[in-house]
Amino acid sequence: MKALEEETSCQLFRRQGKKVCLTEAGDRLLRFARPFLLEMDAVRSELAGFEKFGAGRIRLGASQQACRFFLPPMLSQFKEQFPQCRFEVKAEDTPKCLQMLTMGEVDLAITLEPIKMTDIEFVPCLTDELRMVIPVEHRWSKDRNVDWEELLKENFILYNRESYTFRILNDYLDAEDIKLSSFMEINSPEAAKELIKVGMGVGIMADWAVEKEAREGQLISLPLGQKKLLRTWGISVRKGRKLNKAERIFMKIGEESGCHWMVNRTLAA
Length: 269
What we know:
The chain is of the alpha/beta class. The protein folds into 3 domains: 2-49, Arc Repressor Mutant, subunit A (Orthogonal Bundle); 57-126 and 233-268, 3-Layer(aba) Sandwich (D-Maltodextrin-Binding Protein, domain 2), CATH 3.40.190; 128-230, 3-Layer(aba) Sandwich (D-Maltodextrin-Binding Protein, domain 2). It is 42% helix and 25% strand. It has helices at 2-8, 24-53, 64-69, 71-81, 94-103, 164-175, 189-197, 211-215, 245-268, and strands at residues 13-16, 19-22, 57-62, 86-91, 108-112, 120-135, 156-158, 183-185, 202-206, 219-222, 229-238. Strands 3, 4, 5, 6, 7, 8, 9, 10 and 11 form a 9-stranded mixed β-sheet that branches. A two-stranded antiparallel ribbon has the order 1-2. Helix 4 crosses helix 9. The protein is elongated, with a radius of gyration of 29 Å.
């Protein structure tokens, strides 16, 4: 109290024996400060609820494909447990999501497994397969088999070369000593599928991305070869960052959702 009086340069309290009462200046200061004290109490209660009740927000990075296929069931299950938590989702490819994690611009990210990044922790959730996608009239459709000797004759429609998918594919082809001589870069899977349908080329896409078209006979999906080309999806977080309760639960739901997704696809096959 003495320090407060020295700071205000006036007497705020009147001492009468063991009793202390406010002077006129002290009463004026209290009336001015009371709304701020009440607001601070409310903020303290709200902050305490972030950890206990899962309030607050989670900034999440995820690719457009992840936003479309993987994220909705995860968010639906998460919201049942933490209805107060607010999400901010930034739709970016894996390289950009990992960059945002490193810069602290997002808290979590649904990405492909990071390549040689020691500052990122990765929790795997599911695995998918990249397959050759061809139009129904293609010469490979009869044998349902990719002729590797004819690959260089094909025009490929691929995802952009800055993506992790392109890097994974390139490493796979390098191991087979194959260099693609002709390809188009298309950022939209939907546009790529339409181009393949009209015979503009062949593509390499995730099995689930063309599941509907393959089932309806609009496209044909073939394995690349005896050795499957697999990708691992999961949740990435900056190494050393302490997660709150809501973030830990979200990551757990991601693991469970990935397991259910893979089991259901195996049963369907």
